Structure formats: C-alpha cells, structure tokens
Amino acid sequence: MDLHLTVSLAGSGYHPASWRVSPTPARPDGAAIQAMARIAEYGKLDAILLGVPVEGPAIAERGRANTMQLDPLPLLGSLIAVTRHIGLGAGWTVDYTEPYHVARVFATLDHLSYGRTAWMVRMFGTDALEPRIGRANGLDDAAAYCAHAGEFIDVVRQLWDSWEDEAYAVDKVSGMFVDPELVHPINHVGQAFSVRGPLNVPRPPQGNPVLVQADPVSATGRQFAAASADVVLTSCASLPLAIARYQELHALAVACARRPETLRIFANMMFVLGETEAVAQRRAAELDGFLPPAPDSVVRFVGTPEQFATLLVAWHNDRACDGFNLLPAVLPDDLELLVDAVIPLLRQRGAVRCEYTGKTLREHLGLTRPRSRYAAGRS
Amino acid sequence: MKPRLHLGLFIYPAGHHIAGWRHPAVDPHGIAGIDYYRQAAVTAERGKFDLFFVGDMLAARERDGRVIREGGLNNIDSISITSALSAVTECLGFVATLSTTYNEPYYIAERFASLDHISNGRAGWNIITTANDDAAYNFGQKSHMEKTLRYERAKEFIDICTALWDTWDDDALVADHARGVFADPARIHPIDHQGRFFSVRGALGLPRPPQGWPVLVQAGGSPSGIEFAAMVGETIFAAQSKLDEARAYRAAVKERMPKYGRSSDTLKVLPGLSPILGSTEQEARRKEAELDELILPAVGVWMLSEQMRFRLYDYELDARLPCEDIRASDQAFTPRVVSLLDHAGREGLTIRACANLVAKSRSHGTFVGTPDQLADHMQLWFETGGCDGFNIMPAYFPDELDVFVDQAVPVLQRRGLFRTDYEGTMLRDHLGLAYPKRSRAA
Questions:
Q1: Nearest CA distance, A149 vs chain B (angstrom)
Q2: Domains parsed from chain A with CATH numbers
Q3: Would the CB atoms of A170 and B21 count as touching at under 8 Å?
Q4: Are the Cβ atoms of A200 and B207 closer than 8 angstroms?
Q5: C-alpha torsion sign, points A322, A105, B22, A81
C-alpha cells in the first residue's frame, strides 16, 4: 500500500520564527513558492496544500512571526503552469462565501490543471471572520455550523454534477457546443442556500475536485468529515492517539454507510531535519529560542532523514494514517532535505512512487472518479 | 515623446466570434486547459501588449431555462486564469473581473492584493456590478439588485478595498533580524468601516500591493456606469463601434472626472476591436465570410434577443428587424442597443443580418482589411480623441492573434504609435498611470 505525501507551503516555513533563518525574501513572493512547487514535484509528492495557516504566537506578539499568507486561490493558480503532475489544493472557507463561487472557481482550476486540484474546506466558525464581514451568521453551536457546512458542500457537488460529462460536446460539424439535454439546473432550496444552477463551467476533469477537510476538532466535526471528505487531515500528538483517531474516523465512515477505503486520512506533521541528530536539534533549538511554538501546535519531528523515513513508515504500517501532510519548519531548506534525503529512503523501502503513474490528483491518491448524479440517476 | 496607444488582449475562451470555435484551425477541446491560455499570453507578451483581459459571468447562458446549444464556453474564472499566466510571463499585465454585487470586500481586497504580489505588480481589477439577471438565482436572491443600488454598493465596496490595501505603511514589513521584528504593528493601521452595505474592521493580512492598488478598470456604458467610471475608473473597457460615439463617450467620462477630484489625464479608454486581417482586403473579406457562414441562426437570434431584451424567436429570420416593436417595449436601452436600432432602421436590416452582426462582433468594433488599413483605422481613432488604445478581440485563437501580433503590431511600431519594448515592469508603468499614494496618513 502506498504512503501518500502532501506538503504545505507558506512563505518562510511553518515554524513561526522561520523568517529569522530562511533565505526566502520577507515580502510575499510568488516566484519563491513556484520554485518550491517544482522541488515538491521533483520529489513526486501527491500534492501541495496551500492555505494551511502558520500557527503564530499570541496576537500581542504578531509582529514577531511571519504569519502572512497569500490568498491560496491565486497562489494555486500561479502553480498550474509551472508544474505538470503534482496535485494542487487550496483552502477556501465556507464562512460568508457562496457555493456558486467555490464550485465555479474550483471547476475552472481543475480544467486549467487537467484535473489536479483539491478544495480544502476551511471552517473557521464565526469568531475569526465576523469583524471582517460585519455580520454574524448566527451559527452558534457545532451541529448548526456543520449542517451549514454540509449544505454548502452538497450544493458545490451538485453544481459540479450539473453538467454531465458528455454535455461538453464541442461538435464542430453540427455546431453543438453544449448538449442542453445533459445540463441540469439544480434548483436547490435549503436551510442556508437557494441556488438554481446550472454551473457555467463544464464538469471538472476529476468529476469532483478532491475534497480535503482539515483537522476536525470537535466530535461533530469529525463525524461530518468522515461523511463528506475525500481526505481528512488529523493533528495528533502521538502515535497511539493517531491510531485511535484513524479507527474512530473509519468507524464514523462505516456508520454513515461509507466504505472506509474511500477515505484518506493524512497526519499533519511539522519537521526539522538535519544531517545528524545534533544538527537537527540545534536547528530546532535556534528556532525555538527566537520564538517558542504555541503550546497546542501541530506534532513536530526533529531528527535525521533516516529517522524521519523510519517514523513515517512506522506510523503508516501501524495504521495511524494513510499518509502525511508535511509542514516544513523552514522553507525551502526542510523541503529540499525532504526531497533530496528522505524521499530516496522511502523509495528504497518501496513506500512511495518513483514516477507519477496517473494524471489526476484522484489517480495519485487512488480515489475513483465520481459519476455525475444526473447520469447515475438516468441509467 | 509622442503619446502611444495601449493594447489589451481580450479573451473569450473560444474567440470573440461566436462561431470561432467551429473554425477548422481551432481545437475546441483544448479551450479550458492552461496550454491554450499560455499560448495566447506568451504571444501577447511577444507583441508587447499592456494587458491580458478576462471577463466574468455568474450564470450559464440560457434561453427559457436551457443552456444555449451553440453558445461556446462561458468565461471561466478570471482570477484563476490570470494568476496561472502571471507565472509564465514577465511584463504582461493582467486584468481579472470580479463582481461587487455578489462578493465581500474583505475577501476581494485580499485576493487582488495577492494577485498583485504574485505577479510583481501586474494586476488590474475590472470592477463589475453584474448585469445578468440570472446570476441572482445562483446567489440566493429573488431578483437582481436594482442598478442604482448596485453602483452605490460598488462605490462603498471599492472604498473599503482601497482602504484595506492602504492599511500597511509601505515600510511596515521590516524583517528586522536584530530586534526580531517581522512586521511593525505600529505601522499597520486597521480600518473600522461602518457603511450602508458593509461593516469591516481589521487590517489586510498582507503588505501593501506592489502597485499600491491594482489598476481599477471599469466598463460602464450606461449613465450610472459613466458616472462610476468617472469616479473610480483608471482604465475603461469601452464598447463603442463608431468613432463619433467613442469620442462622445470618452469626453463624457473625462468631463465628469474633475468633480470627483480627479485629473482627466489619468484615464485610459480602450474600446474593444475585433480585427480580421488578410494580406489583401479581398483575402480578409473572404476570411470574414468563411467565419460568418459558421454562425448558426439560432445562436445569433438568441444573442440579439438577449441584447434587445426582446424575444425575436417567433419572427421570420428574413423579415426586417421590428425596430418599432422593440422601441415600444419601452425599456432603458443601453447605448449599444440604441445605436444598433438606429443602424438597422436606417439600412433596413433583416433579423438575420442583425443577428450576424451581433454574433460576430458582440456589438464591439470590428475591422476587416490589411494590417496597414487596420493601423490607419487605429491611428485615426487614437489621434482624434476616440480612445487611448484598444482591447483587441481576436475572432479565434491562436491564428488571429498571431496575425495581429506579427503583422499589425510592427506597422504600429514603425509609425511610432506603439512601444517596441516594455519600459517598466508593472501594469501602471505600461499604462502610464500614477502609483496611488496611501490615502490615510499613519
């Protein structure tokens, strides 16, 4: 079984003090991220996930950490033409956003990239965004919030399905560009949204772009993720906790009549590498000396490429996850070490691919391409 | 230096001509993939264009609840296309289109700031309020917002975005290793906006965009659109197909600018122009006829009906356009409809002829002839106050763009009407627009 690897990229890295040691320019720099994307593709990783936030120190100290993030959507766009194989995911919140926009933008990105995109469903809740938007959305408890997010995702998927695959006919001879019989208004009227549809973009190459859900913290959130996501990112501090979470998510999937093998569970993990353990520890200590990571931040590995490869394979073999979303502490340094030193070891152990064998992100992840619900309904 | 004209490349996915996708030279299966757009952008940059322009639609093109069979691809998302192309070009500017009616200002300010950072200062925002009534139904509305309200909302939307772009002092990002300060909170100034449509508190999560603000582009042709253009537009995507109308439009916008405290020199008006070129006039005419033959009547009549907001489906194709019936439908016609009705009435045009006219030009200017003749045409418009340049709308890709860049651009360059190389790296440099100073002092 394949060990899947995705990586998140953010300016100078995922340690809040990374800017003190990173050679990347302080200002937001598209070219630097594009160069990192090429490195990740050289390592034949499954995907790059953009928009995973850097956990900063307390707000009073915000001036000391690089928590700047470019909007992940144009950032994803900027990677399409400089890569050819690697999957590209971006976070977009369901808060104060319209499902028509999300469906349309990800359908566009999926077409432009020939089927390599993922939507990372971000759920902030109301507190973080309310001042910026200026109105509360009235979703106070977790259940109401998940119902809102669930309806949002459902509408997005309906819109992606609103063009059957064969609707995009482009028959020059008859002059039929679109087959109107195969394009369907969705006429959705729900609790939070009414959307008539259809989408004005043909069905994405992947049918539905891959749906990633980050870090469900509440039990309700986990239940929701197990029911709706293709990939769930977990953040567990230890191997036993990760194994328990993996089993829990599989049980939740089964409980909603879903085959657990259709779900991919990736563990978030920050990493600091060094040629020797002493070097790695020294690097981590230097970063922590500048700015200690927040107490509840993501699980962190510090050590050699050999140790890291061993740990990744062990977690995978112990069924703690199907793969990892790796957060390099310092960019591009730790990404380069990952690709140059860790990936070859994983290949020797037969854990990861040597070449891309599929074209789409779904193929990289071993996920099937869903049929349009309209096509399925007719046959 | 003598003034030079500005060139934008306007992208309809399948080409500007409604039947362009049926042309034998076109591969219509490729028109949603990045390679198709990359080829156009690289060619535009080779031709030293100022900018690459992508429109936006928030609903499928339909007639009576069915998508249009012959209609070609809608505009797919413009931010996605332009951000992708910014990575494979160095100087070309990019204008993406987003609606102020169906978005939130905080998100959009962040999105365009990001595009400007990613492209190193090459972003422009075509601000639209969305004219398509059907969009409302995709966004939970019972009806489309009334036009005056839409423009009021748009004005407030822009005010918030510009204020957010200005929240970081130009030197707020200090990256001071000695003191361990990345960004100086004292130089970041959150806004606290309370208005009719929005309330927004906070600062942008990013430093000021390289251009200060992305270039603000506008396309309004109606009276409220002209007013809005005079208020905020730095570049106007205009739609006049006749020189006298173009002059009048440009003068009308410029005349209104001083009352908003703006100098009329800071405006660039670029009307759409769809050229069909041949090495002789006869060859160009033949190419035009070949393309026009590919137009299916159904799509032309649909486009005409949509534009007139008048159902022409039950009329005979070869009957004269029922100008009186249409006028009697008593609507607030757009200037282009008024112009088309006058033209059709005067010439006694049939529905078929009008449908073809709309289908091939989408009511923008067209030109059929040799590269020299085209240069004459452009020079006349430019030198007599009709425009500051053009948005070039190739009938189909890539051939018609290649011909323009390889044959018409050199003529314009020889005449000293167009740059032979880029003189700056940002879109504001190409357009000769000033960098906005921060509006709020620290």
A1: 16
A2: 4-378 (3.20.20.30)
A3: yes
A4: no
A5: negative
